[in-house]
Fold this protein.
Amino acid sequence: MRLYFLLIRIAALCGHKKAQLLVRGQRDTLVRIKQRGEVAAKEVVWFHAASVGEFEQARPIIERLKSQDNAGDVRVVLTFFSPSGYEMRKNYAFADEIYYLPFATRRNAKAFIAAIRPTKVIFVKYEFWPAYLRELKAQMIPTYLISAIFRPGQLFFRWWGKWYRNLLHCFTKIFVQDEDSCQLLAKYNILRVLVAGDTRFDRVHAIAEQSNAIPIIEHFANVTKNVFQQTPNRVIIAGSTWLPDEELLARYVNEHEDVKLVLVPHEIDKAHLDAIFNLFQGRLVRLSEANAHSVEHVRTILVDSMGLLSSIYRYGQVAYIGGGFGVGIHNTIEAAVYGVPVLFGPNYQHFREAKGLIAANAGFSVANYHELAAALDKALEEHVRLGLNARDYVNSELGATERIMKSIF
């Protein structure tokens, strides 16, 4: 652990931007708490998330907690490990205090816990910092893990993993996503476990209910080529894409003149946007430059701003989720909640929701262009039936927030 933190400090000294943010942020946490002064609260609930994805799993619990009648008596402290998580959510309105988690040394753990004085602690999914867990257990502070998922190949369950597996006994209760995780833990006598589900389903459901209309995308999706067009537009929403995804999609759009595409890349730096523009040979319009007239003359809109994807999915018949030709796919249920079938690349094995969508006949994995073309043809043709499967699957997974709230609070 100390070697890991040393490497981060070396990276910071060498000019690595994220490492610099991390080192500076973690160093400043205890100083900021001291400058804050004393605060009075009957209950202090500390939530820790590694980054943005885990924060989205904590968010339904935080917002339910802060919407209760006694919300004024509850103080929420939110910490992040990742600079991307902290920088994106450092102004989150439902948390009273937001910090980087100090490096997980025994000394830092004692100092941080003494400074915030939590009455309950909630870690999200994959956060297992030994120094913090042991100190919380020593002080008998109730500590919970939510939206967790366990697989046999994880280091907890290796022949040499007993030391790390023992950390799981530090939790007052572990809330897992599925029965397989519960049964796996039971084999190792870890029994304070509840199958609660994944809070992300509750989160995407709430987002969908509050989604904003985007008139220019709506116009693009609905406008017809001429008054004689008899069939509805065939619109694909491609979210969080990378270059391997975009190469396949560009070919499909080029070969199918009746298809429209809204492309929302994962990265919107100039180099990536220019690469996409060249890939589509300029036959697209950027959302920042789009108007009602220009979108009538292209079949692809390139979304060059952040924060719109969850509202854009509502305008498609099919969604393509990027990342599956890299380290792993991005958020599939963000699209499925709208009753839209989803496609993604081959690297989805560690994503329970992707497997669930495939089992529900609402999700399709593709490994090359020919598989993509066949799956898109099928999904566009049968999008109503397949979309109902997607919505039913999401609805069947709702309720984790309520189950966790009843157990903890």
About this structure: The CA atoms of residues 143 and 172 lie 5 Å apart.
